[in-house]
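User: I need a structural model of Purine nucleoside phosphorylase DeoD-type from Vibrio maritimus for a docking pre-check later this week. Nothing fancy, just the predicted structure tokens so I can convert them on my end. Input:
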Amino acid sequence: MPTPHINAKKGDFAETILMPGDPLRAKLIAETYLKNPRLVTDVRNVYGYTGTYQGKEISVMAHGMGGPSATIYFHELMTEFGVKNFIRIGSCGAIHDDVKLKDVIVAMGASTDSKINRIRFRDHDYAALADFNMLQNCVSVLSETDMSYRVGQVFSSDLFYRPDFDMYELMAKYGVLGVEMEVNALYSCAAENGCKAIAMCTVTDHITKGEHLTADERRTELHEMINVALKTALTL
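Assistant: Understood. Predicted structure tokens for Purine nucleoside phosphorylase DeoD-type:
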């Protein structure tokens, strides 16, 4: 049955799904990479599609911005629509000197300032980690490309515009490679519901250095990451 946020039917989604933040990027991925894509949900213009890629049924759907919002979609896809494998594809801001623009960060784990997991985990800290096999498969695919990538920890922030800029220095000290907004929520929701997840983020900005990709560079680099995500999906 449809939920308040997803107007699809049982069976409309594949077991494996790619999830960007932007609904228009989900549309672009479906129309560019999937064969015979069909729109299965469009509540609030958050588009979800299902098609095939090299013969494998795959879905793609946007999750919006921020952990609390994204968790609504993660939870409903996991509990109501039978999706088992989640591949987040997004962008992030680098904070570590060793990370450069255009690098792909594969998130092994995600720290956060959000209280989402405190609510889930009875006010204790929960270590939100990727599924190891998906992580391994993703890195294997990346190793066959000429893309520059890093594997490590990201920080999922509830605030896009932080008032405490010096916090980035502390994150870097603890080895955090980049900052985004949804990975922690995805990994913990997957653990809660017995699902698997991996997240990749292309570095489109370097927060502490004030560097940014151009609009054209963003399109090009994100397409390379999408190809990696699709090839990773084929291994599941």
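Before docking, keep this in mind: Residues 215-234 form the longest helix (20 residues).
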